[in-house]
Design brief:
heterodimer; A: 310 residues; mainly alpha; 16 helices; 83% helix; B: 96 residues; 6 helices; 0% strand; rod-shaped
């Protein structure tokens, strides 16, 4: 059930885009904060796996969608030359958060029990996202994006198709790696505690790797960096993941994979062409909803995929 | 809205800094507490998949659950069906 949050965050993404367009992000983001926090706190009071799925999977997933999607286009409005660095630092947050939460949750469960671990998570995320939302400012006022309906000719462009195909295929690999590495650690005979640590190491890799990738992308061509990293990620799966038998090598692989895994998140928001495409596809919502056809189809297929995996 | 925001050059050109860094920090916090906090779920799923054979669900989820994680984990190791199978076979077994 690892991909459950992810699937629901993506399923609501088109809806959030509509709502943000109509009511603004200061409506959708607080809504998301309320949903996510109630999801975590309610998860502390459930007494069946099914209820846990609903609270932790669906509520938290939907909450993430409502918080995350409206915040996506903002950095591109503030940064141009240093856009990858800005995105790299911002997305390193998920790595720091992941490592911190992965290692503290176990200790909190030991000391106070599962219910308090979930409540604490709910409260921490509530305060942090509330601070973040109140600080966030967009530059829509100055940019005045053209109120175009979907430029469907954009989807006919070969480069755009390639880009969407790349994002789609990378996501399949991303989900698989992200959610199965700790189970894999168990399968090679690692102790359960150390297998949990793998989740932390993966996130450390993300925290350190993303700003570095950001600097590299700003200094050279963003598409080239993405190509190289995708290739390295693919090769390292064959070179390290398949033959790995020792814990040390697995830690190395999880650090490496953590660093380069989410490269498509950054490139999608950083390359000029992509941000233009995504801007038109997802942010500038046209009256007719045909624009989202391709994007929501892609997100639905891979939501399904992650559901099946989960 | 901060005063600096309105006095900033009113153009479509991204300023590449300024209040943008505050936005970087707030997006860092957003990522921290959305995609980062998902790790809580991963850890719990992980522990739960290990303890599933040894403890009852209500015992694991009740607020007064006094079973320490270490105990659960130790029991789980003993109960792990895949423990003694070779890795190539274990990885083909359905997880959870």
């Amino acid at each position: 059930v690892g991909g459950f949050n992810f699937a629901f965050a993506m399923i609501v993404a088109p809806l959030v885009t509509v709502l943000t367009h109509r009511f603004g992000k200061f409506v959708t983001m607080p809504t998301g904060i309320a949903i996510q926090t109630s999801g975590y706190i309610a998860a502390g009071f459930v007494d069946s796996i099914g209820q846990l799925m609903i609270t932790q999977g669906i509520l938290v997933g939907v909450g993430i969608g409502f918080i995350y999607v409206p915040s996506l286009p903002i950095l591109s409005q503030w940064f141009e030359a240093r856009r990858s660095l800005a995105n790299g630092i911002a997305s390193a947050g998920s790595g720091f958060g992941g490592a911190l939460f992965a290692w503290t949750t176990g200790a909190i469960i030991d000391a106070f029990g599962l219910q308090w671990a979930l409540c604490a998570t709910g409260l921490i995320t509530f305060f942090l996202t509330a601070i973040a939302t109140s600080l966030l400012r967009d530059r829509n006022k100055y940019i005045r994006p053209p109120q175009l309906a979907l430029d469907t000719s954009l989807l006919k462009k070969y480069e755009v198709q390639l880009l969407l195909a790349w994002s789609f295929v990378s996501m399949l690999g991303y989900i698989t790696l992200l959610f199965s590495l700790s189970d894999f650690a168990l399968s090679i005979g690692t102790s359960p505690q150390r297998a949990t640590d793998i989740i932390g190491f993966l996130n450390i890799g993300t925290a350190v790797g993303r700003p570095i990738i950001g600097i590299a992308s700003d200094k050279s061509n963003r598409i080239d960096v993405a190509l190289a990293l995708t290739l390295i990620c693919g090769l390292s799966c064959f070179a390290f993941w398949i033959p790995v038998q020792s814990y040390g090598l697995l830690v190395f692989f999880s650090l490496l994979a953590g660093a380069i895994l989410g490269v498509f998140w950054m490139v999608n928001r950083t390359s000029k062409m992509t941000s233009e495409v995504l801007f038109k596809l997802t942010i500038q919502l046209p009256r007719r909803s045909d624009r989202s056809a391709l994007k929501s189809l892609a997100s639905k297929i891979y939501s399904l995929y992650s559901l099946c995996r989960g | 809205m901060p005063a600096t925001f309105d006095t900033e050059e009113a153009s479509a050109v991204p300023p590449d800094g300024g209040y943008g860094w505050v936005c970087v920090v707030s997006l860092f916090l957003v990522n921290f507490s959305t995609w980062g906090a998902v790790a809580v779920r991963k850890v719990i799923n992980h522990l739960r998949s290990l303890t599933i054979a040894t403890t009852s669900l209500t015992a694991r989820l009740s607020p007064s659950a006094s079973i320490s994680r270490t105990t659960c984990v130790l029991n789980a190791i003993l109960a792990q069906p895949t423990w003694s199978t070779p890795s190539w076979a274990a990885s083909t077994l359905p997880s959870r």
